[in-house]
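[Help] Beginner question about ligand-bound structures

Sorry if this is basic. My supervisor gave me a protein sequence and a SMILES string for zinc ion and asked me to "get the holo structure". I don't really know what that means in practice or what format the answer should be in. Inputs are pasted below exactly as I got them.
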Amino acid sequence: MANWPVHSRDATIYGTVTAIGLVALAIFTSVPFSTGWLQAVIVISACGTVMVVFPDTDHHNSRPRRYAMTASLMLATGFTVWALLSAPHDYLSNALSPAEMVTDPEIISAGLILGVAVLGVIGFGRFLDRLPHRGPTHRAPGMIFGGIATGGFAYLVSVSSIQFTAAVIGFLIGAGGVLVHRVRDELS
Ligand SMILES: [Zn+2]
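Answer (accepted):
No worries, everyone starts somewhere. Holo just means with the ligand present. The predicted complex, written as structure tokens, is below.
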């Protein structure tokens, strides 16, 4: 079983090789970067990097687990702040009194969203706690998750002409990242 320094080094190598490979692919197949290929390359190689360390989120005190929890909570908070800032009421220039705040429908709904998101993250942590170490996240379910997450992000950031290709390549590279982790665990 390999530890964090080994997996994180593999992740860096995998992400770099993937990025170079995808840029080369674009050059050789003359896909113009203006079609959004560059965003796809960045997202796919970044997700691929994450997927090499992702399987160890099933280990309670592991760094990937702590990073995943922190990132999820930051995303939930960021989304709530963004929702408030894009609400019709301008909270920055038109501050509310504490009494107005607790009755403001937009603040109440943003608070509810944040509460549900935090509970969701805690629940997900509990779910991961129940998984045996080197169980599903290291096997086919982990590869499918890695593939769908990477392919999904690649699909979202790409323009329609390359969306399908980006999603398929993203799926393969995300699933491949989990496989790289598994192979390293087997070898060491
Ligand atoms: Zn592992």
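A couple of things worth pointing out: The chain has seven helices and no strands. The radius of gyration is 20 Å. Feel free to follow up in the thread.
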